[in-house]
Design brief:
By secondary structure, the protein is an alpha/beta fold. The protein has two domains: 7-199, Rossmann fold (3-Layer(aba) Sandwich), CATH 3.40.50.150; 208-265, rRNA adenine dimethylase, C-terminal domain (Helicase, Ruva Protein, domain 3). Helices cover 31% and strands 19% of the residues. The chain has helices spanning 17-27, 46-53, 63-69, 87-92, 122-130, 145-152, 162-168, 208-218, 230-236, 254-265, and strands at 13-14, 34-38, 56-60, 75-79, 111-116, 136-144, 171-179, 184-185, 192-199. Helix 8 packs across helix 10 (254-265). Bound molecules: S-adenosylmethionine (SAM). S-adenosylmethionine binds next to strand 1 and strand 3.
Length: 275
């Protein structure tokens, strides 16, 4: 039966075989890996992924599409909202890779998460996965091009903001493919891009909630100098360390936000945080 795309679920189905091929090549899935696809839809990515990795777990909110996915051999279906999925538990549910699979191909039982994400909830999905970064090997997502710009932005530009800091703290972010609207049915109103997110082997340790608060305050009035926003916030917390607030939020590198957050977490004043 023909499926009519549901706007409320952000359904834009990939229909360009060349783009699908390029995405699957970029992901390079192998048997024995713990692949998870968010939003399989009609299977544009799922089926070619399955050809290469043989088994796959999919998370689908649309009841009709979840029912279709149950017919595909090798697919385990989690029906529901991805924002309610505990990825740490999901990682534990995968069986160990068989001994015949080389360890380099089955990266420590960690998840490879992929998906052409529903754009209406893409940012909440990225933040939800951030909480499970320890069990993730990598993530490949189709997103709005403008969101990928913000994720990968360097300090100094208009795209650099909260999303850039929170994600670059934990992941290497790489734009791998640009995708035009006519690659989808129905076409979205915006350009799209595929991004690869690889967790850093070691990230500076800090409290994610505190870092999020610092960055939210800093970017609350991005045209003003930080002394009017973050500077005041630091004063109310009795912070006596050095942090240069004569800059704008977009001029401060990720490492400095993280160092400030770490200094506050440890309740000690570093000699200098600005640098
Ligand atoms: N992967 C398919 C493709 O590339 O053609 C479909 C991609 S479509 C942009 C997004 C998919 O995510 C749809 O199948 C939609 O039903 C599903 N979806 C939307 N919101 C979701 C959510 N909160 N949790 C899980 N799946 C969701």
């Amino acid at each position: 039966m023909k499926h009519i795309a549901r706007k409320r679920f952000g359904q834009h189905f990939l229909r360009d075989a060349g783009i699908v091929h390029a995405i699957v090549d970029t992901i390079d899935p192998r048997p024995g890996q713990c692949l998870v696809e968010i939003g399989p839809g009609l299977g544009a990515l799922t089926l070619p992924l399955l050809e290469r990795c043989r088994t796959l777990t999919v998370i689908e909110l649309d009841r009709d599409l979840a029912a279709r996915a149950r017919c595909w051999q090798g697919v385990t279906v989690v029906e529901g909202d991805v924002l309610g999925v505990d990825f740490v538990r999901l990682a534990q549910s995968f069986p160990p890779a068989p001994a015949s699979i080389a360890p380099a191909q089955a990266p420590g039982g960690r998840l490879r998460v992929v998906g052409n994400l529903p754009y209406n909830v893409s940012t909440p999905i990225l933040f939800h996965l951030l909480q499970a970064v320890e069990v993730v090997h990598d993530q490949h997502f189709m997103l709005q091009s403008e969101v990928v710009d913000r994720m990968a932005a360097e300090p100094g530009g208009r795209s650099y903001g909260r999303l850039s800091v929170m994600l670059q703290w934990r992941y290497e972010i790489e734009r791998v493919l640009d995708v035009p609207p006519d690659a989808f049915d129905p076409p979205p109103a915006v350009d799209s891009a595929v991004v690869r997110m690889t967790p850093h082997v070691r990230s500076a340790l800090t409290d994610a909630a505190l870092l999020g608060e610092i960055v939210t305050v800093a970017f609350s009035q991005r045209r003003k100098l930080l002394r009017h926003t973050l500077g005041r916030w630091l004063e109310t917390r009795g912070y006596t360390g050095v942090f240069d607030t004569t800059r704008r939020a977009e001029e401060v590198p990720v490492t400095e936000y993280v160092a400030l957050s770490a200094a506050l977490t440890q309740n000690r004043c570093p000699d200098t945080v600005a640098g």
